[in-house]
Write a structure and sequence with these properties.
Layout lengths: L1 H21 L7 E3 L6 H7 L5 E6 L2 E10 L3 E7 L5 E7 L3 E7 L4 H29 L2
Antiparallel strand pairs: 1-6, 2-3, 2-6, 3-4, 4-5
């Protein structure tokens, strides 16, 4: 009986993890654009070194942003055999954009915040435990 309960619990755990992963949002720092009117503002916010995926009428290009100006984006697309292929994409031909900023500052701040909160909660717990245990 115990083995059956453990196997059911294990099965439910595995299934729930699979469902959770399927519904996960994009990772922190990754922005997916679906609004055409906001596309120009996000292109202007891109910085050299950001990882981008650009959808155009001709296909999808992914790589690292090298340069941008009022009319074009220049992207280095890595090649399998090494090196990179420099591709120029006209801004008016961009249908969609997905990017990740090169500076992971927000991720580090969240990780640091989590550690600080854990330390504070642990300290409060230990102090309360010591006070409640008596002399």
């Amino acid at each position: 009986m115990t083995k059956q309960l453990l196997s059911v619990a294990l099965s439910l755990t595995i299934l729930s993890q699979g469902v959770a992963r399927a519904d996960e949002a994009a990772p922190v720092g990754v922005t997916v654009l679906r609004d055409r009117s906001a596309l120009g503002a996000h292109i202007d916010a891109l910085e050299v070194g950001d990882r981008v995926v650009v959808a155009t009428d001709e296909g999808v290009v992914s790589g690292e942003l090298v340069e941008k100006d009022a009319d074009d984006l220049v992207i280095d697309q890595p090649l399998i055999q090494g090196g990179a292929d420099r591709i120029v994409i006209a801004r008016r031909g961009i249908q969609g954009l997905r990017y990740q900023q090169s500076s992971p500052h927000q991720t580090r701040v969240e990780g640091t915040t989590l550690i600080v909160v854990a330390v504070v909660v642990g300290t409060v717990y230990l102090v309360l435990r010591h006070l409640l245990s008596g002399p």
